[in-house]
Amino acid sequence: MRLKDLALRLGGEVTGDPEVEVTRVAPLESAAPGSISFLSSARYRAQLLSCRATALIVGDPSLLAPGTGVPDFSALVVVKDAYVAYARAAAILHPGVVEAPGIHPSAVVHPAARVDPSAHVGPLVSVGEGAVIGARVTLHPHVAVYRGASIGEDSTLHAGVSVREGCRIGRRVIVHNNAVIGADGFGFAKDADGKYVKIPQVGIVEIEDDVEIGALSAVDRASMGVTRIKRGTKLDNFVQIGHSVQVGEDGVICAHVGIAGSTTVGDRVILAGQVGVADHAS
């Protein structure tokens, strides 16, 4: 792709040669000709000494000013936020594989399920009674969508994901390998003899639009009502969301976080790795 065309899509301005071609993104320290990298902070200028990228995305061109000890680049893309622009450039230059529509012969789809003709249902997928699979959804091998569950358009469920009965996933959601949406919440009552009696978990999980859920994470169904992950929130790998939890919009929940039942987490909250949140907290 010509740099000027990429810059236009990134909302940036080119300084230097706008006609150079870039085909991939690469890290500063190992970028080779034909690639584009990014510099977001003066802390990483030392890595430019081995950088051979054709072009560089920068937010502050003064980081490359003469006298700073860094090599000259034939072309720059100047943007407001170099890291965000890099993310968008990576998506443009490395588009994901679009799976062909259709249902694999080894998949088991209940006659009462509804699968949009544009969806991809991969090998050994199971789609239960009354489930709804929306337009352009991709279900990779061994995904299990239980009865009455629904998957919104343009969502992707990677291999081994389970979406339990009645749970709802919105649009453009990505769920990574072996995550479980809607397993029973951990609810037991101790009787007079000290034995634990299981409390039926009769609620569901709702995952709103543009959420991403990491591998081996679990979002438990509500004891009653709904466990909800709101729009735009991102969950890392090995995250546990307990029953009846409410997580707000545009949050970041990092690896090994556990949130106990009936907790409310607001919008744009960041929970760093291994944070634990007690039940009924806010």
Task: Give a brief description.
The chain is mostly beta strands and 282 residues long.
Say how many strands there are.
33
Kindly report the spatial arrangement of strands forming the biggest sheet. Answer: 6-9-12-15-18-23-26-29-32
Shape category: globular
Unreliable parts = none
Question: Span between N and C termini?
Answer: 48 Å
Cα-based radius of gyration, to the nearest Å: 23 Å
| Main pleated sheet | 9 strands, parallel
Helix-and-strand structural type: mainly beta
- What is the helical fraction, as a range of percent? under 10%
Strand content: 25-35%
Walk me through what this model shows:
- This protein has 282 residues and is mainly β.
- It has two helices and 33 strands.
- The protein has helices at 3-10, 82-93, and strands spanning 13-16, 24-25, 35-39, 55-58, 75-78, 102-103, 108-109, 114-115, 120-121, 126-127, 132-133, 138-139, 144-145, 150-151, 156-157, 162-163, 168-169, 174-175, 180-181, 188-190, 196-198, 204-207, 212-213, 218-219, 226-229, 234-235, 240-241, 246-247, 252-253, 258-259, 264-265, 270-271, 276-277.
- The strands form five sheets. Strands 6-9-12-15-18-23-26-29-32 form a nine-stranded parallel β-sheet, with no helix packed on it.
- The chain is globular.
- It starts with a helix and ends in a 5-residue tail after the last strand.
List the helices and strands and how they pair.
Layout (H helix, E strand, L loop, with lengths): L2 H8 L2 E4 L7 E2 L9 E5 L15 E4 L16 E4 L3 H12 L8 E2 L4 E2 L4 E2 L4 E2 L4 E2 L4 E2 L4 E2 L4 E2 L4 E2 L4 E2 L4 E2 L4 E2 L4 E2 L4 E2 L6 E3 L5 E3 L5 E4 L4 E2 L4 E2 L6 E4 L4 E2 L4 E2 L4 E2 L4 E2 L4 E2 L4 E2 L4 E2 L4 E2 L5
Parallel strand pairs: 2-3, 3-4, 4-5, 6-9, 7-10, 8-11, 9-12, 10-13, 11-14, 12-15, 13-16, 14-17, 15-18, 16-19, 17-22, 18-23, 19-24, 22-25, 23-26, 24-27, 25-28, 26-29, 27-30, 28-31, 29-32, 30-33
Antiparallel strand pairs: 1-5, 20-21
